[in-house]
Design brief:
The protein is of the alpha/beta class. Helices cover 52% and strands 10% of the residues. The chain contains 29 helices and 15 strands. It has a 4-stranded parallel sheet with strand order 2-3-1-4. A hairpin with a 2-residue loop joins strand 5 and strand 6 (341-342). The two termini are 65 Å apart.
């Protein structure tokens, strides 16, 4: 029972206390308590609501309690009539004339006025009483006028107990229902007045244009505030008072970032962009960086970058800093998506690729790096990001327009080609000078099973995945860390030649590993047992470990799920997981679908998660070799 209901119950109890007055006649001229009073009846009191006939009331009491030994509440949701049909009951018992407004004044110490009396009359009062807990909650006495008005508006906007004028404005400009409800309840003028007085929007518009006025105040405040003044003079008639612009601007951001309201932001932005000339006010990269209100901002920034890059062959490199800065700032702009791609994300990735590749090339040109230094720079120094950025760009090229490709992406792809060539040549020469295929800090692939698998607690899962290069492993590390798992990433040297037949055999337990070529065909043996194909490797593991090993496929794990997988793994020490999607796509990956990489890493992450949820504490993910995603001379663009 809420505070209002408690007050009603207390009134009834007080008026019927003792035996002298067994009847209380309660007149509620607005029917304020019509929907709640039944739940407020004290124990031992008989409730008798007026339903259109006083004769029915008299007949019921005289029939059931002719000697008035019981207590009765007669509730009449109307004004008293003269002469009264139940005058004797009123004189014999007690009479109360009280609607919601009077109750709040008498029991909640509300300071009422003519406006409040009007607002609490009729349906508005009934709604506030019936939704008291939902929109008012626990109130402190004395109750203030502002609280009552907020409660009424909260009903119209369906905002619950925590009414927010800002959120109400966003609902109003996004949906038609709030306005209709405000007009139906006679609260529209109240809402307009509150917006003007509290948020400084001193405008005079008809109700049918108030949505546009609010949307204009929101979007142009966002432009003015986040650009530090652009358009302030030109659009002054649309803006709130100067000291309120920040509030409206941040409210506009809330509008943009709210999933259920964002479409209203987009639609109004497009409408207002048609009506007002924005381009003349949009200048200065620094000022426009953080403005999100209009698509014209992104267009202006894109044109500015194009103009800077077009000045000469070195212009892209010279403007790299500003290109990346703008792209990072605009990546989450609501106008960044064009077709199937995020234009600013493409530009960001491309600028980052160029920057990293250029620094790497510069280091290789200045220093003669040995094999260990090159690998440490790649794995520890972050050069792996160069491959990662190229792959992510490559995956989106299918939907990149030609102008975007030529202006922002092609310079980076050209430099990446140079980087691959230089890195490969330097590494190959450095390896030629090695006495043995070992580099400090890198696990030798042939030691994988003994040093990693056998030294881990059992049971455990061992992923043997084809062509999972280092940068993909970094991505898996990042995503599994987000899920809360403890990750240890160990860089490993693939056995030579770095092909599946040799790499997969090197990962398996063995005392000796040999290979021979007959009639142009390579055969690989572990302890004289042929293990060149997946089927022969699987047979080798099953013969070596017997009932201790379970061989599964990535897709099979996903189909089983944690509960069924837990049952299936019972009694096994080694759960070996295999997949060969990338390797089957081709040794050099000339025609590979870019989505294959994302699909593979996604499956590995999901499978590792499922295995942990099935009860396994340790999951080891390994691979046979990496791959080269070789750039083509011509890239098909839209």
């Amino acid at each position: 029972m809420n505070e209002l209901q408690e007050a009603i119950k207390q009134i009834i109890s007080d008026e019927l206390r003792g035996k002298d007055h067994p009847i209380l006649v309660w007149y509620d001229e607005d029917g304020s308590f019509k929907d709640v009073i039944f739940d407020c009846i004290p124990e031992g009191v008989n409730f008798l609501p007026y339903t259109g006939s006083y004769l029915v009331i008299r007949a019921k009491i005289e029939r059931e309690d002719p000697e008035f030994k019981r207590k009765w509440l007669i509730y009449v949701p109307e004004k008293p009539v003269e002469p009264s049909w139940i005058r004797d009951y009123e004189l014999f018992g007690k009479k109360v004339e009280m609607n919601l407004e009077k109750l709040l004044v008498n029991y909640f110490r509300l300071e009422s006025d003519l406006e409040l009396k009007d607002l609490l009359a009729g349906e508005r009062g009934r709604l506030l009483a019936s939704k008291w807990e939902e929109v008012m909650g626990s109130v402190k006495i004395p109750l203030r006028k502002e609280q009552v008005i907020n409660g009424l508006l909260s009903i119209a906007f369906n905002l619950g107990i925590n009414f927010s004028l800002g959120r109400a404005i966003l609902e109003y400009v996004t949906y038609t229902m709030p306005k209709q409800e405000l007009l139906r309840l006679g609260l529209h003028d109240v809402f307009v007045k509150m917006v003007k007085t509290k948020l400084g929007l001193d405008i005079k518009v008809e109700p049918e244009r108030f949505e546009e006025a609010l949307a204009s105040a929101l979007l142009f405040s966002e432009l003015v505030y986040y650009s530090k003044g652009l358009g302030e003079r030109k659009f002054s008639n649309l803006l709130p008072k100067k000291d309120k612009i920040e509030i409206w601007a941040k409210l506009a951001r809330e509008w943009l970032e709210h999933g259920n309201l964002k479409h209203g932001f987009i639609n109004w932005s497009k409408e207002l962009a048609k009506k007002y000339d924005l381009k003349s006010e949009l200048y200065s990269v620094e000022k426009l960086l953080n403005v999100m209100s209009f698509s014209a901002v992104d267009e202006a920034l894109l044109e500015e970058l194009k103009a800077r890059i077009s000045t000469g062959p070195e212009a892209y490199r010279k403007n790299l800093g500003v290109i990346e800065k703008v792209a990072i700032a605009r990546e989450k702009s609501p106008w960044a998506i064009r077709g199937k791609i995020n234009v600013w994300q493409i530009i960001k990735l491309s600028s980052q690729l160029y920057s990293l590749a250029e620094r790497s090339i510069s280091l290789m040109l200045k220093n003669k790096l040995d094999a260990g230094s090159l690998l440490h720079n790649y794995a520890i120094g972050g050069w792996w990001r160069i491959d990662s950025l190229y792959r992510k760009l490559f995956a989106q090229l299918e939907n990149v327009e030609e102008e975007l490709w030529k202006t922002f992406v092609k310079p980076s792809f050209n430099l990446y080609t140079s980087w691959i060539r230089m890195f490969t040549e330097q590494f190959s020469k450095a390896v030629e000078g090695l006495k043995e295929w070992k580099i400090e800090g890198f696990l030798n692939q042939q030691d994988f099973w003994n040093k990693i698998v056998e030294k881990s607690d059992k049971p455990l899962a061992v992923f043997l995945v084809d062509a999972l290069r280092y940068e993909l492993a970094k991505e898996i590390e990042k995503e599994l860390s987000k899920k809360g798992y403890e990750i240890k990433l160990i860089p490993m040297l693939s056995s030579l030649p770095s092909i599946t037949e040799v790499g997969m055999a090197s990962l398996l337990p063995h005392a000796s590993l040999t290979a021979k070529v007959e009639k142009g065909k390579l055969s690989v043996f572990i302890d004289k047992i042929l293990v060149g194909r997946r089927e022969t490797r699987q047979k080798f593991l099953e013969e070596k470990y017997g009932k201790k090993v379970l061989i599964l496929d990535l897709n099979e794990i996903l189909k089983l799920g944690p509960r069924n997988l837990k049952e299936k793994m019972k009694g096994y020490d080694y759960i070996v997981v295999m997949d060969r999607d990338i390797d089957l796509a081709g040794t050099y990956l000339l025609e590979i679908s870019p989505s294959l990489f994302q699909d593979l890493t996604g499956k590995i992450i999901e499978c590792a998660d499922v295995l942990h949820k099935s009860g396994l504490k340790t999951v080891v993910i390994s691979t046979d070799h990496g791959f080269l995603l070789i750039p083509k001379e011509e890239v098909n663009v839209v």
